[in-house]
Here is the input.
Amino acid sequence: MKLFVPGRVCLFGEHSDWAGGYRRIDSRIEKGYTLITGTNQGIYANVEPHPDKLILQATTYGGQRVGPYEVPMDLAALRAEAERGEFFSYACGVAYQIATHYHVRGLDIDNYATDLPIKKGLSSSAAICVLVARAFNRIYDLKMTIRGEMEYAYQGEIVTPSRCGRMDQGCAYGDRPIMMTYDGDRLDVEELPLHGELYLVLVDLCAGKDTMEILASLNRCFPSAADATQKNVQEYLGPINKRIVHEAREAVVRNDARRIGELMVEAQKRFDDHLQPACPSQLTAPVLHKLLAFEPIQPHVWGGKGVGSQGDGTAQFVCRSLDDQDRVVEIIEAQLEMPCLKLVLRAAQKVRKAIIPAAGFSTALYPASKATKRELLPVIDRHGVAKPAILTIIEEAVASGIEEIGLIIQPDDEQFFEELLTRPTRIEQLNRLPREKQDYESRLMDLGRRVTLIRQDVQDGFGHAVCCAREFVGNEPFLLMLGDHVYASDIGAPCAQQLLDAYDAHGTSIVSLRRTAEDDLHHYGAVGGSWREEGLLEISEIVEKPEAAYARDHLRIPGIAEQEYLTLFGHYVIKPAVFDILQEQIEHNLRERGEFQLTPALDRLRQTDGFLGWVVQGRRFDIGDPESYLATLNAWRKL
Here is the structure.
């Protein structure tokens, strides 16, 4: 399994993570708030299980190979190695924590590339810890959430001599900005949606700082302030930091680079005024301040500040454009001989395409399914308009912002769908229609121009059908909608749009969910997991049509009634990596119940890339069997 974990840069709020931890002692201390994001650089590794050892072969920043380091998967041996405090200690500390709480064997980790500078405020040690926690989680399918990986990474690092704060492991969230809130031992994480691009430059100041001295000096100001200097430290890390971070959060969401730069300038000035006196030997930082005021770069940046614990370690700038980012790097590297890293924060790739499988035979509807496709069976809305079910699904996709739709069909059924979507009604028939239905004919032809018919020559399962759309989808995330269900939203936004909005906010493959009674569980795929926020589940397991006994033991969700579970609603937004998994299943003939299923592929994708679930506000209506179809007709007319 290949893994990548980036570094992280603290945009705002340095030191407030540990400061907020003092609320365990005194609740009058303000919560800590940080705004961080992952870097483009990080740690790359191939990982595989090992029967009884933790093995790490590493590539340093600069390309030197070191190791392999080996230690038995024995608690005493792992802890002893962690406490030594050398490079291998981070991996051993995390392995020690994992082995304490889980029955696991070992790991063989080949860190084949590292392009993340170390000891520059970019959390290289935290990235190693997250990498090891994620490797154990995914190799042994421990069903941890990202928060779980973060927690084990943190607990593993503090077994070593390192005294990191809880902010560092935020690199587990990848390259998306997050706001973290620290309230004693409690940590809350909010992912921030991006609606454009932000261009940053990180600069290695090629100087030196003593992070331990900085931390020791500032920690002496807590929990009680003994003099004006210590009160100033608490004021900056408390109410001042809270205001700046929350304003920066709003600026990030608005994609307001100018305001972010202005806030960086203000944050640095207030940091200097309030914290420099507490540790002048380190926080006066002459190299940092010379760079922040360097005149040649000013026309190209909105502002900048120090990174991490501050001092003469690393600086960051918000650039005015992509060209300005290039110019800043060119100027600093040429005139100051300081190496730079470019960091571009991008919005999640927009979902433009949807696929709808419609190639099944539907034995439950025989002999009607011999005469017409179930997807072409009519549903009648409250206005008395009869539409083929597939048209209702296509209209929902388009209303949700989808631009292109791939309809997966049997070759023999092509004429049915062409007749509906691409062949105009004959003029003599069109003239007999009421005006509103003549107008709808134009809309119908417009919808048809968005549709591509994709042949599934052999009907070999849901996963096989989805795999047939690989060429149509390309290297993009896509919306998957079932062809034998129609959906009604309980709010203004269509059900599909609700899921697309959730994907835009989080950038991870996601499936819509609904509550289902235990008696009906055997009809649907179901999930286990834990809540990341209201309505948003971080999925730890996806199971196709589970038995009730298994669901009771493995799929219980906090806050869901005892006799209910969360099941798949029928809409998915999936990253294109799923096609590699499906292709592997087909090539190796990995079938379930005689067919290539989608659910196992989604669970594999969950293990390697994560998967979320969104509890949709809406209802689904099945047209796949006579009783369900009749119930749908009765319900749909009343909507």
Summary: The chain has a mean pLDDT of 90. The longest helix spans residues 228-254. The chain has three domains: 2-191, 198-345, 353-636.
